[in-house]
Model the fold of this input.
Amino acid sequence: MEKSNFLLLLILSFGYLFHPANAVFMEKLADRKICADKYCSYVISAAQALEDYIASDCRFINLKKGQMIYVYSKLKPVDGAGVFWSGNVYGERYVDQMGIIGYFPSNHVNETQIFMKKTIEMATTEMDFFCN
Done:
């Protein structure tokens, strides 16, 4: 019994150490999303920003006109709400934003190349809208 209590304490401590202090679950933007795989880890397409976009909160990323974006998922709109895609920017000129994945309005970009024609639709989760 003593060994199992130690393991439980160790697991709880590990979780506490890696739980972000400022983490916030934000309002869901959609109940469904389209991805290339069940983890949304493969790039669906590439897009180019048509205009600048300033992120409204930590779920979103900033875009600059002409910037290239890898698209990982596409949210399905609810009740006529805006259509948002998730992705990250790439290119040498935008090193400060590379690797940051966030949402952006799909009407601010032009999809330039499709990498995955076969996609799957699935439910979103609370973690899809987690802000750190």
Observations:
- The two ends are 37 Å apart (CA to CA).
- Helices lie at 2-17.
- Confidence is low (pLDDT under 50) at residues 4-20.
